[in-house]
Amino acid sequence: MLTVSNASAYEYSVTVVDDYAYIDDLTPHGQNQYERVEYWLHDVAGWSEEFYDKDSSVTAEDFGISDSGYKGLDEADFHYHSGHGVDDIGTELALCSWMPGFNNDVTAGDVQYKWDQDNEWVFLHSCNVLDDSSDWAKALDASHGIMGFATTTYTSTTLVNEFFDEAINSDETIADSYYHATKAAFGSSVKAVIIADTSSQMTNDHLHGQGSMAADESPNDSSYAYLSWWC
Amino acid sequence: MKKIALSMLIIFVLAIGAINYIPDAEGTVSKELGLDTDFVINAQFPEEVSSFPYYKVLSEENVHESQSNILKAREAVPSEDEATKVVHDYLLKKGQLPEDSYLSDVEVLYLKTINTSTGQDIVEKKEPVLVEVSYNRQINGVPVVGPGDSITVSLGDDGEIIYFFKTWRELEIAGEVTIIDANTAIKNLQEGKTIQKPAGSERPIVEINDIKIGYFSDVTGSNQDFYKPVWIFKGIDDRGYEVVKCVDGVAK
Which of A4, A29, B100, B125 is most buried, taking the most CB atoms under 10 A from its CB? Predict the structure, then answer.
């Protein structure tokens, strides 16, 4: 187990797509959620913001699809994303000009074996994406885990607030914090999913500075840990 | 009070246009983070009424008690039947089981280790984590949906209470309001005018198989002053997941 306590050494990144060209806008919800992430990680926990990209500034490269050069979310310890998640022959994150059958998206294949640098946890506040959890788990090289949903979900500042309140003020594990946040934020028809590269990461990982974090998986294997529940 | 064809099975196929931008609707409290759906409605309608009670919120209760590290593999979680009894007795003893609550779900959570090396998902290990028992609310038999009125109690090894979360509102009757009829509610559903607003366009077929008049309960802290009637549509999506959509029921 590794415990690190120098908060300023930790970094987070955020992507928010509120303004869609062809499908329903989410304005101002993603921006409101970003402000809660910023409050908790920057103002309360003292982390540094690696980047915040919004709407048309959000690119596939922000999700760490490149093998070299700019590594996007893999340059920070924690990443939060808000935007539409869709099932378009496999689940994917819709970027601002998304249309069915066309690109302008991020698929599980785009990030397969790519998160191998700094990232530990990714929070995908989007519909459907983790219904294909086995595909997205392949992104977890050195990265530890992904929180998300298998069904429809909704914009919610309560989800963000409750998650960070548990993880930072109460020093609960990331998985426990996510469990409570989803219970507080949503009704029974939302299915929350959390996956991790190892079961030890699933049950032991805290946000940096709030407790222990399990080691990266080495060597990498083809297995991952999975938990889900109805909210 | 006449009935709207209770004996008839009515199927509406409501195809929503392909790419269709829908502006914000008044009363939207949050937005769906996926795409809209085509609806097949295959359900009986409730009795037609012109007015329906509504309630004023007097107070909110939010109780959260939890052990640390609740999501981990365990060896001796109770059966669903045992958990149901333990939780019922626990809530009664705590004075935390409101008269208008009802048992809505009992579920065992499992920590799975999944191997994908063959191209198929092979569950290598499946270990119980907890058993959760959930309660929701009915006001005089009328359902309440949404996150604002619910109780979840989770049990670990040997039935130990490891998580208790209750969010509930105290209500008093405020009067009656005129409500829209079922056809208007379906039209609003078709147009995406839901309380939690759909965002987008054509998607997998959704079958609506239950239609009721009830109430929507938003998250605590949302400054919800009243519980006014909504039309509740329940069904499944093309992956078999439950869908719940609410349309404002109050006539303007």
Answer: A29
Kindly state whether A218 is in contact with chain B, defined as any CB-CB distance less than 8 angstroms: no
Contact B34 A183 (CB under 8 A): no
ipTM here? 0.92
Q: How many domains does chain B fold into?
A: 2
Q: Which residue has the tokens 């030890």?
A: A200
The CATH number of residue B73's host domain is: 3.30.310.160
If one counts every other C-beta atom within 10 angstroms of the C-beta of residue B28, the result is 17
Beta-strand (E) ranges in chain B? 10-14, 30-31, 38-43, 51-66, 101-115, 122-139, 142-145, 150-155, 161-178, 196-197, 205-216, 226-227, 229-236, 242-248
Query: What integer pLDDT is reported at residue B243 of this predicted model?
Result: 84
Q: Per-residue pLDDT tens for B147-183?
A: 999 999 999 999 999 999 999 999 999 999 999 999 9
Give contacts of B115 with chain A, Cβ < 8 Å: 222-223
If asked whether residues B138 and B205 sit together in one domain, one would say no
pLDDT at B70 over 90: yes
Range of the domain at B191: 13-53+174-248
pLDDT over 80 (residue B193): yes
> Which amino acid type is present at position A161?
N
Same domain, B157 and B222: no
Residue pair A139/A115 in contact (Cβ under 8 Å)? The answer is: yes
Contacts of A146 in chain B (CB under 8 A): none
- A134–B121 C-beta distance less than 8 A: yes
